[in-house]
Design brief:
The chain is built from nine helices and nine strands. By secondary structure, it is α+β, with helices and mostly antiparallel strands.
Amino acid sequence: MAVVKPKTSRISIKKKKWIKITAPKFLEERVIGESFLSEPAEAIKRTVKVNLMQVTGDIKSQNIAVKFQIADFKDNKLQTKIVSYEYLPSSVKRLMRRSITRIDESFVVSTKDGVKIRIKPLLITREKVSRSVEKKLRAELKAELVKFVTGVSYEELYTEIIQNKIQNDLKKKFNVIYPLKGIIIRVVEKEPDEYVSKKAQEKALAEEPKAEDIEAGIPKTEETPAEAKEEKPKKKAAAKKPAVKKEPKAKAAKKKE
């Protein structure tokens, strides 16, 4: 009689290997790291954050962190695109003094090729300035940066910022208004495709009908102040009892007699 062997399931294990991660073309495709993977497709859309000095080899850029996103696998290398640029907060704190004024700004603007980015510049003056000067510097800074960003592509913008060209050009222009200690681009980051401001989100949430109204099929309506007053039940005034005059004890005794 033949003996039936029990079936055994075989687990196939794919071999993993080290795959190099490279920077974009405008950064000369330098190797910024490695990843241990079985399939290169697993790494697509992952992000890698490195110190800029590691990419450029310039010690002056050690205060800056750059984030890359893996976009493609080609020639046995994982190719990336730049996602954000950040001047380290600890380095910004070292520049601060009591006798100076720090002027921050933050706004969203689109590049020449239609990429929406958020940029956060920082002005540092040599001495404390008045509110009027501060307001003028902030307005001029935003106007100059919007003008510059809208005239260059996404990669050109990062190239200019990493090479410190735009910061030096702005400093020369702003020294005419007031002498500056420095201009720093603190953050440059790509905004999501569906960018919605906080105010728009709050407005949308306020306009949404409540769950109770949806279940009951009652349309949401706004109550006027007059209607709200009418709905409040009025408290009935308690009926007052007629006041009884009390006679003195001496008079009451005489009447009984």
